[in-house]
Design brief:
There is one protein chain. This protein has 434 residues and is α/β, with parallel strands linked by helices. The chain folds into 3 domains: 47 residues, Transferase, Pyrimidine Nucleoside Phosphorylase, Chain C (Transferase, Pyrimidine Nucleoside Phosphorylase, Chain A, domain 3, Up-down Bundle); 246 residues, 3-Layer(aba) Sandwich (Pyrimidine Nucleoside Phosphorylase, Chain A, domain 2); 89 residues, Pyrimidine nucleoside phosphorylase-like, C-terminal domain (Aldehyde Oxidoreductase, domain 3, Alpha-Beta Complex). It has 17 helices and 13 strands. A 4-stranded mixed beta sheet has the order 1-4-5-13, with helices on both faces. It is globular, with a radius of gyration of 22 Å. The site of uracil has 6 residues, from α9. Uracil binds next to α9.
């Protein structure tokens, strides 16, 4: 078999067979197929597309390119959750303890943030001493003992995807539905869960700006999951403005804790209840979504979800006192309000711009190696649909550097579009794909 012939076949509109896809993925992972040939293939796929069968074969080939985590040592149905990423997306921080408190086994692999979106691991490191660099044995033991463990993605997990994603990133071939779906699902399948709940974001701060594309991606991923024998459901949710009010690592941890106390923002709480109730159903802990929602609400009301977070933080070396006293979390030196420049309705809040402002303050990574400041970020006091008078506080910026604060404030002001048009905030749940 020759890579040249496969590139030509795809370029001319053909469908690749399982053997051809296996040859290509294996050859590229081993270094036998050079970047320039794989780049040409990715561009051909970008223009021609892949059918459902090809997408499944690509997913399986990438999943099997490294270790497939064996979670059979954990009793019960293991459910994983994945978000396609967004600004202020601290969902796992609240959702994992809520669902674990209701009996779901949470064995999760998470990533760090890159660019304007944050990663769960960075956020969790706001807890002093917390580590996701745990062995597979500790991971499995913790899930069996307390129902929850989160570890960092190992190098051995879907290495073909890692190589391909880095190549796509620099060859303008990221935003193809089959390539995104296979990339995400290869990691989820390799991570070993029995069932998967996907949170596919749509809107200005998401990969998929248009609703129809988000539903397309959701359907493609659900189909891959089912074909691979994993019960999979996707929720399409809004990312046209940041989720909740806090953007920035420790600030988001604080908001997740507030949510576990029943005092979280409405949109964020609703997303957690929707995703959580689906997870409870897939895990066999609830018969219906309604029953699942009630169980989750009870875990908040009786404090068991908050206690589960503390148990989890402690089990992974973190200071669990911070769960009960959020004033111990990293805090920025400068806390400054941003006043509204005029009266009117918030017609739009450009989502990725808010993420970039947090990045400017030092809350995200410019490169994979950059250190991040866990304490900085933004708390949005006003969101889409709110009416403001001149001088009302739009947002509060948390900073450690005056220069960065100035740059972020100027930019955040431009992210708020204030006008006379009465605007309604859209629902956080856009749809569910089963
Ligand atoms: N996230 C991934 O893991 N892969 C993609 O291709 C896009 C987003």
């Amino acid at each position: 078999m020759r890579m040249y012939d496969l590139i030509m076949k795809k370029r001319n509109g053909g469908a690749l067979s399982k053997e051809e896809i296996d040859f290509m993925v294996e050859g590229y992972t081993k270094g036998d197929i050079p970047d320039y040939q794989m780049s040409a293939m990715m561009m051909a796929v970008y223009f021609v597309g892949m059918n459902a069968e090809e997408t499944l074969h690509l997913t399986m080939a990438m999943a099997q390119s490294g270790d497939m985590l064996d979670l059979s040592g954990i009793q019960g149905i293991k459910v994983d959750k994945h978000s396609t990423g967004g600004v202020g997306d601290k969902t796992s921080l609240a959702l994992a303890p809520m669902t674990a408190a209701c009996g779901v086994k949470i064995a999760k692999m998470s990533g760090r943030g890159l660019g304007h979106t944050g990663g769960t691991i960075d956020k969790l490191e706001s807890f002093e001493g917390f580590s996701t660099a745990i062995s597979t044995e500790t991971f499995i033991r913790n899930v069996n003992d307390i129902g929850i463990a989160i570890m960092g993605q190992t190098k051995e997990l879907a290495p073909a995807d890692k190589l391909l994603y880095a190549l796509r990133d620099v060859t303008a071939t990221v935003d193809n539905m089959s390539l995104i779906a296979s990339s995400i699902m290869s990691k989820k399948l390799a991570a070993g869960a029995d069932a998967i709940v996907l949170d596919v974001k749509t809107g200005s701060g998401a990969f998929m700006k248009q609703e129809k594309d988000a539903f397309g991606l959701a359907k493609e991923m659900v189909q891959i999951g089912k074909n691979a024998g994993r019960n999979t459901i996707a929720v399409v949710s809004d990312m046209d403005q940041p989720l909740g009010r806090a953007v920035g690592n420790a600030l988001e941890v604080k908001e997740a804790i507030e949510t576990l106390k029943g005092k979280g923002p409405e949109d964020f709480t609703e997303l957690c209840l929707t995703l959580g109730s689906l997870m409870l159903c897939l895990a066999g802990c609830a018969r219906t979504q309604e029953e699942g929602r009630e169980m989750l609400k009870k875990s908040i009301a009786d404090g068991s979800a908050l206690d589960k977070l503390a148990e989890f933080v402690k089990a992974q070396g973190g200071n669990e006192k911070m769960v009960y006293d959020t004033s111990l979390l990293p805090a920025a030196r400068i806390v400054e309000p941003l006043p509204a420049p005029k009266e009117g309705y918030i017609e739009k809040l450009v989502c990725d711009e808010v993420g970039i402002c947090s990045l400017i303050l030092g809350g995200g990574r410019e490169t994979k190696e950059s250190a991040i400041d866990l304490s900085v970020g933004i708390v949005l006091e006003k969101k889409v649909g709110d009416y403001v008078k001149k001088g009302d506080v739009l947002a509060v910026l948390h900073a450690n550097d005056r220069e960065k604060l100035k740059e972020a404030s100027n930019r955040l002001l431009l992210a708020y579009q204030i006008g006379e048009k009465e605007t309604k905030e859209g629902p956080v749940i856009v749809g569910i794909v089963k």
